[in-house]
Amino acid sequence: MTPDEYVEAVLELVDRIPPGRVMSYGAVAEALADRSGRTSARLVGAIMARHGGGAPWHRVVNASGGLPPRLAREARARWLAEGTPLRGTGVDMRTAVWWPG
User: Fold this and answer.
1) DSSP-derived secondary structure letter, 53
2) Burial group, residue 78, by CB count within 10 angstroms (0-12, 13-18, 19+)
3) If DSSP codes are grouped into helix, strand and coil, which group holds residue 19?
């Protein structure tokens, strides 16, 4: 898989995350690892930062269920609108996690 194909695969997977559910950056990388040979959560984060503006970016969170502070306010509004289970200042990862299947 070329770098451009990987970007497309990440964005396509993120587009499939249902409203009210989330995946971590690491889970996105893991879900694509067999096809791509890549396993970097940081790479997924970089792709989302550069190319994810049109995708439901708020559905991809860090392992503890949060986003960078500069995105947290808008993400929280989107999470509330979608009925995403929340815990503290982020997503309740025990109940909101989604895995493609």
Assistant:
1) G
2) middle
3) coil
Longest alpha-carbon distance in the chain: 39
Domains of the chain: 3-96 (1.10.10.10)
Give the whole-angstrom CA distance, residue 81 versus residue 11: 22
pTM above 0.85?
Answer: yes
Contact 10, 47 (CB under 8 A): yes
The H-or-E segment that residue 90 falls in is strand 90-91
Helix (H, G, I), strand (E, B) or coil at 2: coil
29-47 tens-digit pLDDT: 999 999 999 999 999 999 9
Q: Helix, strand, or coil here: 31?
A: helix
**Dist CA 73 CA 53 (whole Å):** 16
Average pLDDT, the chain: 95
